[in-house]
Amino acid sequence: MKNLWILSTLFLLALISCDLSLENKVHAQSPPETEPSKQNPPPELLKQEIRKQENPPKKEKWTFSSLEPGPWQTMAIRYAYQVLDRYFDPTKTLSEDPLLNHSKFEYERVYFTIYVNHKTRGCQSSSKGNFQQAIEQAVIETIEDPRFGGPLKAEELPQVFVSFNMVLDQRPILSRTVAGITEELDLGLDGISIVKGKKKAFFKESVFLKLNFDMKKLLERLCLKAKLSKNAYQKDSSRLYAHRMLSFVGDRTSEALSLYRYQKLIDRKEVTLQEISRRLKLARSWILDKRKEDYGFLHYEYLPTSNSFPKTNNLIRQMGTLWSIAKNANYYQDEEMRELAFEGLDYFLDFQRQEGDRIYIWPPKDSPKIAYNAFILLALCEVESYPLQNQIMDALGRGLVAQQRSDGGFDTVFREKTEAGIDFYPGEVLTALATYAEKAKKPEIYEVLKKAFPYYSNHFRNSPNTAFVPWHSQAYTILYLHTQEKQYAEFVFEINNWLIQNHQILKNPEYLDFLGGFRTQPNYSSTAFLEGVACALHLAKQIQHPEYVSKYQESFLLGLRFIFQLQYDHSDVFHLIAPEHALGGIRTSMTDSLQRIDMAQHFINALLLSENYQLVR
User: Fold this and answer.
1) Bridge partners of residue 525, in order along the sequence
2) Reduced to 3 states, what is the DSSP secondary structure of residue 428?
3) Are strands 199-203 and 190-196 parallel, antiparallel or unpaired?
């Protein structure tokens, strides 16, 4: 564990700090070249050197000879506050700390940032003398930094929150293309600099977050900051460097918090029943915050880095989120969520079309996908006392059943012979019908699932797809619990074994925050995959299969660790423009802060399955 903890800090990220357009004073403090006494090589020589690298070496993992996380980080925070206090009250004293003066502190430069109420109030850096002297100089210059609303005022001291970003060393970047540079950098973990002659500029890793990891935009701004043309990074005469960073934050009283890509690195030991409940409440608050005041239901996307709501929408995901809202309201008897669920049902049922004894949800300017019926039916299964609830559920259900063909498969759009979305829509429909059969006590509906089973089990075996797994896991878990026919449980095991074996990162992750995620570059889809794993774990316990219980327990706990990492917690939002809008939401990935309602939907559903099936104790 010690080695894991040591490695975890090697990729620590910086907090939002200086504005992207730092002034010349900061320009002059950019990290020096590896050999500052030597002139840059002629462009043609550098070009030849780069071309020799037909297969550029892979990035080496960070290793520190001596600088490791520990009590010194908290001591650095405490000393910074002493310097702050003494600046405004000269009668106060500074305590000498031998640990901060120790020669083992090897670094190029330390950046210091002051935040007041989530706003940057100053950012400066220093490489003066020993570490304690560098802290003192950086703090004083940050207090006097005029660029963020003028120098800090004494009355702001009680609200001050501080961060340290330490530049440790550097390595050359050989590529001159956006894709190649992206590959050579550890996004959110490395700083970057450009040098051309006497012109230079440096961006901490925090700048990646401000630009939401838009590498082209970042490189152009880096060049402009160095007073070069915006495409100078493409020139062989320019030299690019990646800089290893170590970052931590703190206030006056608590221990320093080390950060990894702007967040606390979650340990699997933190996955507890209490933590699941707390994070469900955070997600609930995020959903309620996205409620639309005008016509519509929820804001579909939110971008924390710009505090903006992109003008995009997806009605299937809106309705899927409605289902998770209704589930949350039902499980916790939450009146506010129940009210929101009713609002969503009112809104989407306005799109209904009735044909005989069937209802179809048919939004304007869209094709009537069977998923629409499925999610409205699922939502109705979770609420109580909605007007004409039973009649609407029956009519929606009849509409879905009518879509099943004689071979057991479903046409996925009403009035059309198509299987578009075969790995999504049929599973959503089967989950809805199984839930409806259970809720309405209509055992004849289970026959639809039985009829579909040979068709879709064969489809998966011929064309396995990750999207297929969570929906069919939920549907056939319900069917097994009703029938006790082992073939359904065994299929749930089969598809989740395939998912875990081929797609989950269970050990030796490329980056520590990837642990437990699914796919090479894990993202929000892991929240959905955990719904399938939760079902498999529940069935393994029901059948008393020790090997599978152990396998799925490990997968589920590590998966929860990963999706907790995706969620913005209180310690992760201090650098955001409007933290109250981001708190509790799920990011697209570790390098994309965009939040979307369906990410919260699957997060909530996975955690509710855990609660309902008592998977974590």
Assistant:
1) none
2) helix
3) antiparallel
**Contact indicator for 372, 423 with CB cutoff of 8 Å:** no
**8 A C-beta contact, residue 318 and residue 300:** yes
> Is 130 strand, coil or helix?
coil
Span 140-168, pLDDT tens digits: 999 999 999 999 999 999 999 999 999 98
**125-161 exposure pattern, b = at least 16 Cβ within 10 A, e = fewer:** bbbeeebbebbbbbbbbbbebebbeeebeeeebeebb
Q: How far apart are CA 339 and CA 383, in angstroms?
A: 10
Residues 402-443 have pLDDT tens digits of: 999 999 999 999 999 999 999 999 999 999 999 999 999 999
Give me 311's structure tokens.
């003008």
Give the predicted TM-score (pTM) of the model: 0.88
Note the pLDDT of residue 295.
Answer: 79
Backbone angles phi, psi at 431, to 5 degrees: -65, -40
Distance CA(326)–CA(245), nearest Å, equals 44
* Alpha helix (H) residue ranges in 125-256: 131-143, 178-184, 206-210, 215-225
Q: Which residue has the tokens 């006097």?
A: 144
- The total number of residues written for the chain in this structure: 617
Question: Three-state DSSP class for 145?
Answer: coil
